[in-house]
Amino acid sequence: MANYILVVQLDVNEKYVKEFNELYDGEHVPNLLKVEGVVSGRRYELERNAEDQLRYLAIYEIERADIPESAEWQKAATTPGWMTVRPHITARRRGVFRKM
Protein backbone atom coordinates (compact mmCIF):
# COMPACT_ATOMS: atom_id res chain seq x y z
CA MET A 1 0.00 0.00 0.00
CA ALA A 2 1.28 3.46 -0.93
CA ASN A 3 1.79 6.19 1.65
CA TYR A 4 0.08 8.86 -0.48
CA ILE A 5 -3.15 9.32 -2.38
CA LEU A 6 -4.13 11.87 -4.97
CA VAL A 7 -7.81 12.76 -4.68
CA VAL A 8 -9.51 14.47 -7.62
CA GLN A 9 -13.14 15.62 -7.61
CA LEU A 10 -14.79 16.81 -10.83
CA ASP A 11 -18.03 18.05 -12.28
CA VAL A 12 -18.63 18.07 -16.03
CA ASN A 13 -21.13 19.75 -18.31
CA GLU A 14 -24.09 17.37 -18.58
CA LYS A 15 -23.90 17.37 -22.40
CA TYR A 16 -20.43 15.76 -22.21
CA VAL A 17 -20.93 13.21 -19.42
CA LYS A 18 -20.90 10.16 -21.72
CA GLU A 19 -17.75 11.26 -23.57
CA PHE A 20 -16.10 12.30 -20.28
CA ASN A 21 -16.71 8.91 -18.64
CA GLU A 22 -15.63 6.95 -21.72
CA LEU A 23 -12.36 8.89 -21.98
CA TYR A 24 -11.73 8.85 -18.24
CA ASP A 25 -12.19 5.07 -17.98
CA GLY A 26 -10.80 4.06 -21.35
CA GLU A 27 -7.86 6.42 -21.71
CA HIS A 28 -7.11 8.72 -18.78
CA VAL A 29 -6.93 6.25 -15.88
CA PRO A 30 -5.15 3.52 -17.89
CA ASN A 31 -2.50 6.05 -19.01
CA LEU A 32 -1.94 7.32 -15.46
CA LEU A 33 -1.61 3.75 -14.15
CA LYS A 34 1.43 3.35 -16.42
CA VAL A 35 3.27 6.19 -14.65
CA GLU A 36 6.06 4.91 -12.44
CA GLY A 37 5.02 5.07 -8.79
CA VAL A 38 1.25 4.96 -9.42
CA VAL A 39 -0.03 1.93 -7.54
CA SER A 40 -3.76 2.08 -8.30
CA GLY A 41 -6.54 4.29 -9.56
CA ARG A 42 -10.26 4.07 -8.90
CA ARG A 43 -13.24 6.21 -9.86
CA TYR A 44 -16.50 6.87 -8.06
CA GLU A 45 -19.72 8.74 -8.76
CA LEU A 46 -21.57 10.55 -5.99
CA GLU A 47 -24.41 8.32 -4.85
CA ARG A 48 -26.24 10.72 -2.58
CA ASN A 49 -26.18 14.45 -2.36
CA ALA A 50 -23.61 15.70 0.07
CA GLU A 51 -22.78 19.27 0.92
CA ASP A 52 -20.00 20.76 -1.24
CA GLN A 53 -19.17 17.51 -3.04
CA LEU A 54 -18.58 17.22 -6.77
CA ARG A 55 -20.16 14.44 -8.85
CA TYR A 56 -17.05 12.42 -9.77
CA LEU A 57 -14.16 11.27 -7.59
CA ALA A 58 -10.88 9.63 -8.57
CA ILE A 59 -8.41 8.27 -6.02
CA TYR A 60 -4.91 7.30 -7.06
CA GLU A 61 -2.52 5.54 -4.68
CA ILE A 62 0.95 6.95 -5.33
CA GLU A 63 4.37 6.16 -3.89
CA ARG A 64 5.57 9.78 -3.69
CA ALA A 65 3.78 13.09 -3.21
CA ASP A 66 5.49 14.69 -6.21
CA ILE A 67 4.30 12.19 -8.84
CA PRO A 68 1.34 14.32 -10.07
CA GLU A 69 3.77 17.14 -10.90
CA SER A 70 6.20 14.90 -12.79
CA ALA A 71 6.78 15.20 -16.54
CA GLU A 72 5.71 11.56 -16.96
CA TRP A 73 2.37 12.23 -15.23
CA GLN A 74 1.79 15.42 -17.23
CA LYS A 75 2.42 13.58 -20.50
CA ALA A 76 0.04 10.75 -19.53
CA ALA A 77 -2.63 13.20 -18.35
CA THR A 78 -2.71 15.44 -21.44
CA THR A 79 -3.43 13.06 -24.31
CA PRO A 80 -5.29 14.51 -27.32
CA GLY A 81 -8.48 12.58 -26.51
CA TRP A 82 -8.57 13.70 -22.90
CA MET A 83 -7.83 17.30 -23.84
CA THR A 84 -11.00 17.39 -26.00
CA VAL A 85 -13.20 16.77 -22.96
CA ARG A 86 -11.18 18.71 -20.38
CA PRO A 87 -12.65 22.12 -21.36
CA HIS A 88 -16.09 20.78 -20.37
CA ILE A 89 -15.06 20.15 -16.77
CA THR A 90 -16.98 22.74 -14.79
CA ALA A 91 -15.39 22.28 -11.35
CA ARG A 92 -12.29 20.56 -10.04
CA ARG A 93 -10.68 19.91 -6.66
CA ARG A 94 -7.41 18.11 -6.23
CA GLY A 95 -5.04 17.28 -3.39
CA VAL A 96 -2.32 14.87 -2.34
CA PHE A 97 -2.79 13.28 1.09
CA ARG A 98 -0.20 11.49 3.22
CA LYS A 99 -1.08 8.38 5.21
CA MET A 100 -1.07 9.05 8.95
Any overview of this molecule?
The protein is 30% helix and 34% strand. The model has no long low-confidence stretch (mean pLDDT 96). The chain has a single domain (4-98), classed as Alpha-Beta Plaits (2-Layer Sandwich), CATH 3.30.70.100. The protein contains 3 helices and 4 strands. Strands 2-3-1-4 form a 4-stranded antiparallel sheet, covered by helices on one side. With 100 residues, the chain is α+β, with helices and mostly antiparallel strands.
Largest sheet at a glance? 4 strands, antiparallel
What's the tally of helices? Answer: 3
Counting helices, strands and paired strands, the structural category is alpha+beta
Strand content: 25-35%
User: Which strands sit side by side, in order, in the main sheet?
Assistant: 2-3-1-4
Extract low-pLDDT stretches: none
Q: Domains counted in the coordinates: how many?
A: 1
CATH class reads Alpha Beta
- In the CATH hierarchy, the third-tier topology is known as Alpha-Beta Plaits
Give the second-level CATH assignment, the architecture: 2-Layer Sandwich
Radius of gyration over all CA atoms, rounded: 13 Å
Shape: globular
Oligomer: single chain
Percent helix, as a range, is 25-40%
Mean pLDDT: 96
Q: H/E order of the elements?
A: EHEEHHE
Terminal Cα span: 13 Å
Beta strand count: 4
